[in-house]
């Protein structure tokens, strides 16, 4: 399989496209610039099957409806943020003066950690709260990648000072779910460059001694 990182919107939130040889693909966190994303997908003859959200902050959901309605595909989200898509007060767009960023309710509500299979795609769903109460990470073991959202970054960790955030919970999520993955696993974060589990274990100052 192949994947592409596509920074979108004013906060350059990373959207990811993961596709197979059949040109079927999954979309992770379509945060903004829906027409740009759709144009790229069509240019490469990719067929989206689903939208996976790591969490529902405004900068990760701005293009959800554009992509969903263009391809008639379901949206997956954690149960603790099922109401955030429709509520600017919860998804933070009102708080940061970004206008009202909203989307229709999600089609699939994730209630537990499990193996998610969509067509030929198999991902482990981890609940990784701390940045937000319903943050999720999606681990594709066969590809050696984990879509970590705003939980873990290159040399940093997600902020926990937003409503519903919890610093200790964030550290526990990283320790229990991300640092236990093979060290060569590529961490694909919500912002900035990709990194690896091993690099963050060795050099992330926020995880020093954790």
From TrEMBL:
Q: Which CDD domains match?
A: metallo-hydrolase-like_MBL-fold (cd06262)
Question: Domain Metallo-beta-lactamase spans what residues?
Answer: 12-191
Entry superkingdom: Bacteria
Q: Which cofactor does it need?
A: Zn(2+)
Keyword Hydrolase attributed: yes
Arranged from A to Z, the UniProt key words for this protein are: Hydrolase, Metal-binding, Zinc
A single Pfam family, by name?
Lactamase_B
Name of the protein in its database record? MBL fold metallo-hydrolase
Source organism per entry reads Rossellomorea oryzaecorticis
Tell me the classification of the organism that encodes this protein.
Answer: Bacteria, Bacillati, Bacillota, Bacilli, Bacillales
């Amino acid at each position: 399989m192949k994947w592409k990182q596509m920074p979108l919107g004013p906060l350059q939130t990373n959207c990811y496209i993961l596709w197979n040889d059949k040109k079927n693909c999954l979309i992770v966190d379509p945060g903004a610039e829906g027409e740009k994303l759709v144009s790229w997908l069509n240019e490469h003859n990719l067929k989206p099957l689903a939208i996976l959200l790591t969490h529902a902050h405004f900068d990760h959901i701005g293009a959800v409806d554009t992509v969903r309605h263009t391809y008639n595909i379901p949206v997956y989200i954690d149960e603790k943020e099922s109401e955030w898509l429709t509520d600017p007060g919860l998804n933070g767009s009102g708080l940061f003066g970004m206008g009202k960023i909203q989307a229709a309710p999600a089609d699939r509500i994730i209630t537990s950690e499990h193996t998610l299979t969509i067509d030929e795609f198999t991902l482990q769903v981890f609940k990784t709260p701390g940045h937000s109460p319903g943050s999720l990470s999606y681990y594709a073991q066969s590809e050696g990648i984990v879509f970590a959202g705003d939980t873990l970054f290159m040399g940093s960790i997600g902020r926990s000072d937003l409503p519903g955030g919890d610093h200790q919970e964030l550290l526990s999520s990283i320790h229990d779910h991300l640092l236990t993955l093979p060290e060569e696993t590529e961490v694909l974060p919500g912002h900035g460059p990709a990194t690896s589990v091993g690099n963050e274990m060795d050099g992330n100052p926020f995880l020093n001694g954790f």
